[in-house]
Amino acid sequence: MKKPSPDARQGGCLFEDLELPGLKLVTPRKFGDERGFFCETHNEKTWANAGLNFDFVQDNHSLSRDVGTVRGLHFQTAPFAQDKLVRVISGRILDVAVDLRRSSPTFGRHVVVELSKENWRQLFIPIGFAHGFVTLEPDTEVIYKVTNFYSPQHDCGLAWDDPDIGIAWPAAAESAVLSDKDRKWPRLRDLTEVFA
Ligand SMILES: Cc1cn([C@H]2C[C@H](O)[C@@H](COP(=O)(O)OP(=O)(O)O[C@H]3O[C@@H](C)C(=O)[C@@H](O)[C@H]3O)O2)c(=O)[nH]c1=O
C-alpha cells in the first residue's frame, strides 16, 4: 500500500490510495465511549474535500452464513456501471477488486484487502473493476453503497478462480459456497464486456 499523503485525513476520515489507481481504502473515525461508539460511515462533504465526488443511490446488505462463501466477481456494464463502497458490520472478508479497464496499465491485476467489523475499513471500488469477496467468519454481513441502480440486464461477472487473474484465495475458499450464477462466469480472456 502507498504511504498516505499528509492531507489524506479529512474530517477524521483516512483515505489511502491502493496500488491500482482509483481504489481507495477509507477508514472513518470511530468515537468510542461507555455506551459503545458513534461513527459517520459516509459523509459527502468529507469525501468532496478529499476530491471524491460520487452520488451513491442504493445501499445493499448481504449476509453470508458459511465461512468460505464466495460472491463475485461482479460488475454492471454501462449505462448501469457502479462505483462501490464496501464495508463489513459483522464478521470478516477478503475483498477483491480486479481492474477491467482495457486502457489501464494495470488491466487484469487485482487487489485483496481484509475488511472486518474490527478494522472498520471500507474499500472504495470505482467503475471499471470487478468486485468479489470470500467470507472468513460465519454470519458475515457486508454493507455497500453503489452509484447506480441494480439492473439484472447489465449484471456481468468474471470467474472468481480464473488462473490468469491468480487471486490467492484462502483455504476457506477451497470448497467455496457459490451461487449457481457465480459458477458460470467466463475467464478474463473470454470476457467481451470490459471497460474502456
Ligand atoms: C445485486 C442485487 C441483487 N438483487 C437480487 C437479485 C437476486 O434475486 C438476489 C441475489 O443477487 P446476487 O446473487 O446477484 O447477489 P450477490 O451475489 O451478493 O451480488 C453482489 O455481489 C457483490 C460481490 C457485488 O459486488 C454486488 O454488486 C452484487 O453483485 O438479490 C437485487 O434485487 N438488487 C441488487 O442490487
Give a short synopsis of this structure.
With 196 residues, the chain is mainly beta. Helices cover 3% and strands 39% of the residues.
Outline the biggest β-sheet: 7 strands, antiparallel
| Gross morphology | globular
Rounded to an integer in angstroms, the radius of gyration calculated over CA atoms is 16 Å
Q: What is the N-to-C order of secondary-structure elements (H for helix, E for strand)?
A: EEEEEHEEEEEEEEE
- The amount of helix comes to under 10%
N-to-C span: 25 Å
Category by helix and strand content = mainly beta
Q: Cofactors and ligands present?
A: dtdp-4-keto-L-rhamnose
| Tally of separate helices | 1
Mean pLDDT: 94
Q: Care to count the β-strands?
A: 14
Structural features, described:
The protein has about 200 residues and is mainly beta. About 5% of the residues lie in helices and about 40% in strands. It has 1 helix and 14 strands, in the order βββββαβββββββββ. The strands form 3 sheets. It has a 7-stranded antiparallel sheet. The chain is globular and about 50 Å long. The mean pLDDT is about 95. The site of dtdp-4-keto-L-rhamnose (TDO) has 12 residues, from strand 6, strand 7 and strand 12. It is an enzyme of class 5 (isomerase).
Layout of strands and helices, then pairs:
Blueprint: E1 9-10, E2 13-17, E3 24-27, E4 30-33, E5 36-39, H1 44-49, E6 58-64, E7 70-76, E8 84-90, E9 92-99, E10 110-116, E11 122-125, E12 129-135, E13 140-146, E14 155-157
Antiparallel strand pairs: 1-2, 2-3, 3-11, 4-5, 6-13, 7-12, 7-14, 8-11, 8-13, 9-10, 9-12
